[in-house]
Amino acid sequence: MKYLWQIILFSGILFLSAQKNVAADTFLPASREQIQLSFAPVVKKVSPAVVNIYAVRVVNSQPVSPFLNDPLFKHFFGDALPFGAPHARVQSSLGSGVLVRNDGVVITNDHVIKQAEEIKVVLADGREFSADIMVRDVRTDLAALKLKTSKKDLPYLELRDADELKVGDVVLAVGNPFGFGQTVTMGIVSGLARTEVGIKDFRSLIQTDAAVNPGNSGGPLITLDGRIVGINTAIFSNTGASIGISFAIPSNLVVPVLAGVDHGGKIIRPWAGISMQSLTREIAYYRGLDYPKGILITKVYKNTPAERAGLKVGDILLKIDDHEILNEAAYRFRMATAKPSQTSKFTIWRDRHEQTFQVTLETPPDLPGNQPVEIPGRNPLSGAVVVTLSPAVASDLGIAYEETGGVVIIQVRSDSLAILSGLLPGDVILKVNDKVIENVDQLFRHLTRSRKGWGITFKRGSKIFVQNW
């Protein structure tokens, strides 16, 4: 017993030392009462703003034989055969959403309301409203709805900066899985900036182990202060049910979608005016880096923010505003969350040391009167919808800009001859019969009927192909 007081003193010192190493905003439970803490207060706060979404769409069932839907078959026989015509039927989908403004603006997933003919939104207290689609952003899988109401006092939740999240933070997923009614699940952030998932274009997703199931799509991911840090969008599963890996779109990507509500549905994202590629281990070693980090600038376009700031081909972009740029997906994410006219600090690796440049971002320019048009006539691209490539078009579609111009396909009608061509939305037409195509007018002119057929050169991703008909 004579050493008991020394043991007690030593234990106290260890305890105080451990407490010093714990972050100021976190603590370890020290009593049974603290272990029995409840999430009920935050759930009570957020639940009124989480809504159920019912989207009704009309779909066409397949005809008796798939060959009757073939564009070539329909070219000769048309729709004269009644048994070959598709039959319309009503299909409904169920999802979740969250009110983000007191005037009835709701954020949800784009895939929840895709092709919807009618949208009903039901609040937690049972009130039901019809809703209009204000903004659709296919690239982020986000959409903004506006409830048909004049009320200005609806419950809503604020957004929180997703860059504040850390792996291990506790989060809540709120939604309507399987149509059971509003459900809350708890988990932790198990990963950040997931870019390998392949969900839409800006792949920088929050990974959690909160149970998310069908019907949760579009619902909010909540931090314990009751703010939105993400929009639940997908799960990883072999069965379609939750196995503990779910993904949410960071709240930072919601901001430009919300801004689009007040800009006629137009989402405005800035650009710097560069093309880039991911860094290989060989290039990193040759340029004096310990390991591959950053992206290699392969082109700086003329009269752009990057050129005016002094960036050069061969520079390696390491950070934007102190956020690490590990790959191309990380760069696209930072551009997607930035604002036009914003001045950002670009950290560049040049001549084996870091340099910083102030880049004032701007809205990518478009061509006057540049509108999508459908290709007419009898040619391999008949029925394709195209538009002249410009920085604005390239930014909207998420493809590389070509200073030499070109025409990009944005849609291919399923009942057109163009569907047989093998060309896809996003392909950029560069030449027709070796004639350079800079705009839509030139494309139309060179697609006129040709006895020798057509040879079309197009770019898909980073590769160039030639197709002959």
CATH fold type of the largest domain: Thrombin, subunit H
Question: Oligomeric form of this entry?
Answer: single chain
Largest sheet: 7 strands, antiparallel
Mean pLDDT: 79
Beta-strand residue fraction: 25-35%
Mass-distribution shape: globular
Which ranges are low-confidence, i.e. pLDDT below 50, for 5 or more consecutive residues?
Answer: 71-77
Count of strand segments = 25
Task: Using the coordinates above, name the CATH class of the largest domain.
Answer: Mainly Beta
Report Rg: 27 Å
Count of distinct structural domains: 4
Summing up helix and strand content along with how strands pair, one would put the structural category as alpha+beta
CATH architecture identity of the largest domain = Beta Barrel
Q: Helical element count? A: 11
Query: Any idea what the CATH superfamily of the largest domain is called?
Result: Trypsin-like serine proteases
Q: N-to-C terminal Cα separation, in Å?
A: 97 Å
Portion in helices: 10-25%
What layout of secondary structure does this protein have?
Elements: H1 4-21, H2 32-35, H3 40-46, E1 50-60, H4 71-77, E2 88-99, E3 105-109, H5 110-113, E4 118-122, E5 128-137, E6 142-147, E7 170-175, E8 183-194, E9 205-208, E10 220-223, E11 228-235, E12 246-250, H6 254-261, E13 274-278, H7 281-286, E14 295-300, H8 305-309, E15 316-320, E16 323-324, H9 328-337, E17 343-350, E18 353-360, E19 373-374, E20 384-388, H10 391-397, E21 407-412, E22 428-432, E23 435-436, H11 440-446, E24 455-460, E25 463-468
Antiparallel strand pairs: 1-2, 1-4, 2-3, 3-6, 4-5, 5-6, 7-8, 7-10, 8-9, 9-12, 10-11, 11-12, 13-14, 14-15, 15-16, 15-17, 17-18, 19-20, 20-21, 21-22, 22-23, 22-24, 24-25
